[in-house]
Design a protein that fits this description.
By secondary structure, the protein is mainly α. The protein has 14 helices and no strands. α6 packs across α9 and α10 packs antiparallel against α11. The two termini are 21 Å apart.
Length: 321
């Protein structure tokens, strides 16, 4: 919660709590949406770019010298990229939810046997990131993106698999494609932020999209099943999801839903949201400590309560003003 919100609470402890009249310092829709773009989305995309670049570099080093040490470096780079995307992907907005980006991070990979066969058809000459992206975007679903890299790096015998056909070069190709697409994503957000300052209609459109994304993101976490606790890297995935959703709600270092609600005297709605968000964060921490079915169920319960509040209490309050 920002200083603005804290100051408002102190003020409302006096006279403002006695009235339903909005304060004169009401946070506007453009202030909220521009802050979310600048203070939440921009740093998230930058973090994804940094991780994707490291993944590109580490897979290239692995191909140059296949070794257990280089494999571990590539695996760690993958996990950093995975977590950076999960913070965005839980509730993607604007360009982040468009197919060129989404298919690179969310489309399940085909079998490693099919990937090995596909690797035999890849361009044989060294490719720049731009060329890799151009050729990579033409691949059918299941043969490109981050899930493809994971299916190889975390297979039962990754070093052996990487030496089959052109598999290592194929994995590095996918890393190059991801890195380039994230660069494009950065440019798209930069252009959108500049344009939003002049398009009086867009902040309102993004506000609707923002609220819908919060509801959809919390619903995705609510659909988490107890048996999902057995999935690889599940605690890392869920906590990255929670961190991304939390940043969108609180606005990170800028204006968030808390400020927006409190400036409209919707204190009870924010306090309820804050309580449930905190419960979800605590459930995520417990899942990190022990990825059990019981702790996985707590994620679902906490997320559903948050979703219910966003869809009912918060949505109703915002329709009033």
């Amino acid at each position: 919660m920002k200083k603005y919100a804290l100051l408002l609470i102190c003020t409302w402890l006096g006279s403002a709590l006695a009235t339903n009249t909005p304060t004169a310092n009401k946070v506007t829709t453009p202030e909220l949406t521009l802050s979310i773009m600048n203070q939440v989305i921009t740093p998230q995309v930058q973090a994804l770019q940094t991780a994707a670049n490291e993944l590109n570099q580490s897979t290239a080093a692995l191909c140059q010298q296949p070794s257990e040490a280089n494999l571990q470096q590539a695996q760690q780079a993958y996990l950093r990229t995975f977590s950076a995307w999960q913070q965005i992907g839980i509730a993607p907005l604007g360009p982040s939810k468009q197919p060129p980006t989404m298919r690179l991070f969310t489309t399940p990979a085909r079998s490693t046997a099919e990937l090995a066969k596909q690797s035999q058809t890849m361009p044989s000459h060294p490719m720049t990131d731009g060329e890799a992206h151009d050729y990579g975007s033409q691949l059918p679903d299941g043969y490109l993106g981050l899930p493809v890299i994971a299916s190889v790096l975390f297979s039962d015998t990754p070093l052996s698999l990487l030496q089959q056909d052109s598999m290592c070069a194929y994995i590095n190709w996918q890393a190059k494609t991801i890195s380039r697409q994230v660069t494009i994503l950065q440019y798209e957000w930069q252009g959108l932020i500049r344009g939003a300052a002049y398009d009086i209609a867009y902040p309102g459109q993004l506000m609707t999209e923002y609220l819908q994304a919060l509801e959809a993101g919390s619903q995705r976490l609510a659909s988490f099943k107890p048996q999902d606790s057995a999935r690889p890297n599940i605690a890392q995935e869920v906590n990255a999801n929670i961190a991304g959703l939390s940043a969108l709600i609180t606005g990170a270092n800028g204006i968030g839903l808390d400020d927006y609600l409190l400036s409209r005297q919707h204190q009870s709605q924010w306090l309820k949201t804050q309580k449930q968000l905190s419960a979800l964060q605590q459930a995520g921490q417990k899942l990190t400590q022990h990825a059990s079915e019981r702790n996985a169920k707590q994620i679902s319960i906490a997320a559903q309560l948050l979703n219910d509040t966003l869809r009912s209490d918060v949505a109703t309050a915002l329709r009033r003003n």
